[in-house]
Amino acid sequence: MKLTNTLILKSQAKEKRYSLSDTETTGLIVRIEPSGSKSFYVDYRNSYTGKRVQRRLGYTNELTVTQARELAQKIRVSVRNDGEDPTQIEKKMRERLTIGEIVNLYVPWLKIHRKSVRQTLIMLRSFSKLYPIVAEEITSNDVTKWKQNCKNEKTGKSLAPQTVNRRLALFKGMFSWAMREGHISQNPLKSNVEMLKESDNNHRIRYLEPDERERLLTALEKRDGEEKDYLRCAVLLSLNTGVRKGTLLRLKWEYVDWERKTLFLPAQIMKGGKTHTVPLNSVALEALADWKKRSKNPSDGYIFPGDTPEGHLGDIKNPWETLLKRANIKNFRWHDMRHDFASQLVMQGVDILTVKKLMCHTDLKMTQIYAHLSPQHINLATEKLSELYSKNKGK
User: Fold this and answer.
1) CA 214 to chain centre
2) Looking at 116-130, 245-259, 320-334, which range is the least confident one?
3) What b/e sequence results for 67-76 when a residue is b if at least 16 CB atoms lie within 10 Å of its CB, and e otherwise?
4) How far apart are CA 127 and CA 125, in angstroms?
5) What is the mean pLDDT of the chain?
């Protein structure tokens, strides 16, 4: 029959559900429930899937018959032309993952495929305010607001540009992973996220001045007499090998070759994922030997055991900062001991290729940032040319 608003209003509920079909618009029906509720539906067959579908349009007290006919016609045309079922599209939309859900999927993958995720988890938590957003709907404005409010979780101070960029790189990497794994159908962060401009100061080379080194070693020895823990060994090993902190904390006693005086660095604990072997000078050997005597696990296991899931020491930020205060040394990070190692080698006249090998650099460009620290060595090299002319001067 031809549906009208009056006809629908007068239709009474029965013991069983029943439907009224409209003769004006193919597929438009009114379903009347035993409870008395009445709803418009559109009935159609999806030409793409071959399945018959009845899609609810709304209650009869929300839509007029004219509005219901327009909706029904629009849906049937869309299905016929595009072969897409609006019901399935909406279902997919409801099933789309939020950023928080993507993070929950990403973390287990990280724990399997990455050496350590402790710092990564901290960085991911800094995006917590973005977690409720559907991953595919995040915009550059959302990221811009995050950058403007990105602060240190403990101090509340704004983070350095390079720190913000490191977190953004991780965030973008997570979206690329989600795209590869099929968790999202498009990557909204692929090209519309701008990194912060880093100042030249962020790339400064910081090394210890002679008086700073003396104060640091004095404070270190004094502290070691009080605490008798790992810090003395860790600091001296860093200063004399240039090993990164992440690698240092994962060292095991089996990596130390006492006879050859070398330290083996397996690929799985190295930033570049390549195996290296570095020499141990007398200071590093003495520090290791002294710590081994005092260590609770001197024969095997990690050199610096701790409470991380892997069993090694986690972070040593607090004792390190306390040591620097005792030594009255400012603006000196743990990683700067690696810079100090390379800088001192260069200033002692060690050639840049040897320094590259000792730093375990894969590219010489990474090592050449220290080259300017050896002007005297370079001057002495060029001065040797003057001997060629002084010999002929008296002739």
Assistant:
1) 37
2) 116-130
3) ebbebbeebb
4) 5
5) 85
What totals of helices (H) and strands (E) does the chain contain, helices first?
Answer: 17, 7
Sequence letter at residue 83: G
Length of the chain (residues) = 395
Residue 234's CB is within 10 A of a number of other CB atoms, namely 25
The DSSP 8-state label assigned to residue 309 in this structure reads: T
User: Do 253 and 300 form a contact (C-beta atoms < 8 A)?
Assistant: yes
Distance (Å, rounded) from C-alpha 142 to C-alpha 81?
35
Q: What are the residues whose beta carbons fall under 8 Å from the beta carbon of 54, sequence distance 6 or more?
A: 29, 41, 42, 43
pLDDT value, residue 383: 67
Question: Starting at the edge strand that comes first in sequence, how are the strands of the sheet with 28-32 ordered?
Answer: 18-21, 28-32, 38-45, 52-59
Is-above-0.70 flag for pTM?
no
Helices assigned H by DSSP within the chain? 5-10, 65-82, 86-95, 99-113, 118-125, 140-148, 161-180, 210-227, 231-241, 245-248, 282-294, 317-327, 336-347, 352-359, 364-367, 375-383, 386-393
Q: What is the DSSP string of 56-92?
A: EEEETTTS-HHHHHHHHHHHHHHHHHH---HHHHHHH
**What are the distances in angstroms from CA 20 to CA 28, 33, 40, 99, 151?**
9, 12, 10, 44, 61
The distance from CA 83 to its chain's CA centroid, rounded to whole angstroms, is 40
